[in-house]
Structures are given as C-alpha cells and as structure tokens.
Hints:
Elements (H helix, E strand, L loop, with lengths): L1 H15 L5 H4 L4 H15 L6 H7 L5 H13 L3 E5 L7 E5 L1 H18 L1
Antiparallel strand pairs: 1-2
Amino acid sequence: MQKTKDLLNFWEEQMRHSHTSSNYFFRKSPSHYHMMLLVMSAYKHEEKLSVEELKTKLFKTSRPKSALIINEACEKKFFFLEKTSTDQRKKNIKPTESFVKEFEEYIETLKGLVL
C-alpha cells in the first residue's frame, strides 16, 4: 500500500511542474509520447534517427503535424537537429543532455517506486 501512496505522490509532484517540464510536453498526445520513445530508443541503442525517418515512424500523424511537434520539441530544448557529414540536407534528431538527464531521473524514480 505504501508503494501506491508513493506513486501517487510522485505523480502529483510531476503535475505541479507540468507546465515547465518535458513531462507535460510529451503527454500532450500519443504522437508526442511516441516521438519521445522513438528518439530515446534510438539514443539508448546508439542509432541514428533522421527527421524523415521519425516522421515516417510516427503512427497516425501527418507529416506536417510531425514536423510541428519536432520543431516545438527543438524550440523547448528537448531535442536538437544535427546535420550529417555525408549529406548536409539530412538531419538527425537527438535528445539534449538536459533532456537525457531529466528522462533518466524520471525512469530511476519510477523504478524505485514500482520495484
């Protein structure tokens, strides 16, 4: 029962900071959340993920809508775009160091509450 209370307290704390954190941004829609998971999965597996690949992988999201979400995530400094050395037109999307830190802290906190 204590784990349940701890988990509820954790979620309430997250909601207090929701207007400023990535937590709120990536929960706006399933597409936002899916994008975060795709980018972080590529990062964790040390794979390159181009903007075009990301747009294609997002389920039930138009390419223009995908582009808007990507731009907004970059403006909010959660992700950044990196030009490839072979083709300057192609850009890979990567999480910022601050977002990686926030994401990992979030995951570790959740693991501690659930396990």
